[in-house]
Amino acid sequence: MADSSASSGANCFEKLKNYVKTQKGTILAAEIFISFIIIICYGASHTGGYSSVAICEMIFSMVFFGIFMMELDKQILVVNWVWSDLFRAGIGAVLYLIVSLINVIGGAGDGARIAGGVFGLIAGLLFAYDTYTIYLQIKGTRQHTAASTDDRV
Description:
- By secondary structure, the protein is mainly α.
- It is built from 5 helices and no strands.
- The protein has helices at 2-20, 23-44, 51-69, 81-106, 111-141.
- Helix 2 packs antiparallel against helix 5 (111-141) and helix 4 (81-106) runs antiparallel to helix 5.
- The model has no long low-confidence stretch (mean pLDDT 90).
């Protein structure tokens, strides 16, 4: 019994190592990492209320990382995971850019808040890049079938 749990743990670790090497895995890992840095920056600032966007986006990125790493998106077919990921990344990009601009512009005298805002701008660009790659994936998998213009029956 111990052998099966050890092998499943090693198998999970191998899946993690292999998934992080993919483009999507690298992007999601970077999103999780930069969201964590933003949480630390906003936690150290005088106004910590802006950390909620970073917390939510980090949790969403971790959930999608786990689902895609374990290939649960191929087993759970009720949800369209590609479109869900597109909305997650798009909304994350917009929220990060809005909150970060507010913090960079209004954070005079609070270095941690400005640092969180700068990292938030980088995160907004990273989430926007993720949105773009997902859009290209959707566009590439879509099959365009030409409508028949033949009038014969």
